[in-house]
Amino acid sequence: MNAIVSIKNLHKAYDSGFVALRGVDLDIAEGEILALLGPNGAGKTTLISTVCGITVPTAGKIMVGGHDTVTDYRAARSLIGLVPQEINLEPFETVENTVSFSRGLFGKKKDPARVAEVLKMLSLDDKAKSKIKELSGGMKRRVLIAKALAHEPRVLFLDEPTAGVDVELRKDMWNVVADLKAHGVTIILTTHYIEEAEAIADRVGIISKGEILLVQNKDEMMSQMGRKELRVDLVEPVETIPDALMKYDLVLAPNGRAVTYTYDTRAERTGIRTVLNDLDAAGLRMADLQTQQSSLEEIFTTLVKEQSA
């Protein structure tokens, strides 16, 4: 993997004694979308702030595009775009000037063509002359992304990019993120929305209590760690599960017309064939079968609970 961001043994402790990050190791490949999941206080925002140079690490090393974020801060930071959670924009400034000013903060020369390109990429070109106060909440979030992209970074951090927006706007932002990836931008986003990670991420990282619990390809994670459920719809309802089937821990539907069998996808034998044979032997005739994969939310919850235990 060609890592554009490399984090090694990163620690962050505050004067109060609170430890926000504990030995974080993380490599982020160029051109990927990494979703970082974790409960409140897990260390997501602290990790982003430390990579971006807003917070100074207590120990460890961070490299961005081959530049050390401490000893070569300017070069490293010039490769990073950051979209914060809070919408903090000058309400009486135009969209065009807001984005252009952000470019200047990084010492870049004025480039109206580049600004126009970014605005078009984010479907803001028809709002270039509009004042910020005239925009909707979703459009303001697009302006935040445009500001972060104005200086042509290779890495974009999105801290809770869809917090507080409705479902329609959230899915619209997912499309924006996919378009940015298509333009070669590496994206790291923190989110509380599990479906967000499932929808757009290439890999998922789970962080809790300042530690990275797992980083894995999203599909592989769900395949290797997820459970599957086999639902068997019955021709005739039953009141109880026969004693001969109790060993399978089947769950009977409230209406008695279906039973559910849960199995581990990692096991050499799922036991499905045996279960189906025994159902038939017990006189439970099958009308239909369907399987369902456990969600990323269930995997996330299980990992966090295991760490807390």
From TrEMBL:
GO MF annotations, alphabetized: ATP binding
Stretches assigned to the ABC transporter domain: 5-234
Q: In the UniProt record, does the keyword rRNA-binding occur?
A: no
Superkingdom to which the source organism belongs: Bacteria
What InterPro entries has UniProt attached to this entry?
A: AAA+_ATPase (IPR003593), ABC_transporter-like_ATP-bd (IPR003439), ABC_transporter-like_CS (IPR017871), ABC_transporter_ATP-binding (IPR050763), P-loop_NTPase (IPR027417)
Query: What keywords tag this UniProt record?
Result: ATP-binding, Nucleotide-binding, Transport
Tell me if Chloroplast is a UniProt keyword of this record.
no
Query: Record's CDD domains?
Result: ABC_subfamily_A (cd03263)
Question: Do you know which PANTHER family this protein is assigned to?
Answer: ABC TRANSPORTER ATP-BINDING PROTEIN
UniProt name for this protein: ABC transporter ATP-binding protein
Species name: Loktanella gaetbuli
